[in-house]
Amino acid sequence: MRILIVEDDAPLARSIVTLLRGAGHAVDHVESGEDALVIAADEPYSVIVLDVGLPDMDGFTVLDRLRRRGDRVPILMLTARDALDDRVRGLDLGADDYLRKPFDTEELEARIRALGRRRGGDPTPEIIVGALTINRSAGEARIGSQVLDLRRREWAVLETLASRAGQIVPREILHAEVFGIDEPVGGNALEVNITRLRAKLPPAGPVIRTVRGVGYLLDEG
């Protein structure tokens, strides 16, 4: 998934970014509400994690502006407050979930995964494409009983293609799903990961097809 973290607490933001990138997600981070509104207009985020207490405007204002302009990306609100009316306000403005600080990182990751599945229209944790089964909750992909040994970006490529199996995924969209804005990557980084992934998919698995000049497609094989 492509995830945006809107959090002005630098140590907390770094820990969240490290956690989510380690799980194979492409993650961007901004510290202000204004920056969040600008970047969210241009990037295809699957989930936004939005802190309520921001320096320039509160998270409720950011949430309200996103919804008013028609942005339907799932939003998880983070807050240090425990007031019921704050939670109700966020949900009424269009938040999809709410998590109070301090929180358990495993719970945060689980809630983000659930919101991402909802965004993709499939709330189940598994994606099945022919002999391939991807368990998004466990972070595991297997062909039959064979578990695939995947690097995090290989996992991200496979999950993105599998979630759109049988459809052409344009190269630009696939790149945006796999790599964050500030991640240092070479011009052929996507192709390198596609090549490595193809080598790890056994003959019984699905096939990654190149649609020249457009993108890639995962076929059941």
Question: Please, could you describe this protein's structure?
Answer:
The chain is built from 8 helices and 12 strands. The strands form 3 sheets. A 5-stranded parallel beta sheet has the order 2-1-3-4-5, sandwiched between helices. Strands 6-7-8-9 form a 4-stranded antiparallel beta sheet, covered by helices on one side. The mean pLDDT is 87.
Q: Which descriptors would you attach to this protein?
A:
221 residues, 23% strand, 12 strands, 8 helices, five-stranded parallel sheet, four-stranded antiparallel sheet, alpha/beta
Break the fold down into its secondary structure elements and pairings.
Layout: E1 2-6, H1 10-22, E2 26-30, H2 33-40, E3 47-51, H3 59-68, E4 75-79, H4 84-93, E5 97-100, H5 105-119, E6 126-129, E7 132-135, E8 140-143, E9 146-147, H6 152-163, E10 169-170, H7 171-178, H8 189-200, E11 207-211, E12 215-219
Parallel strand pairs: 1-2, 1-3, 3-4, 4-5
Antiparallel strand pairs: 6-7, 7-8, 8-9, 10-12, 11-12
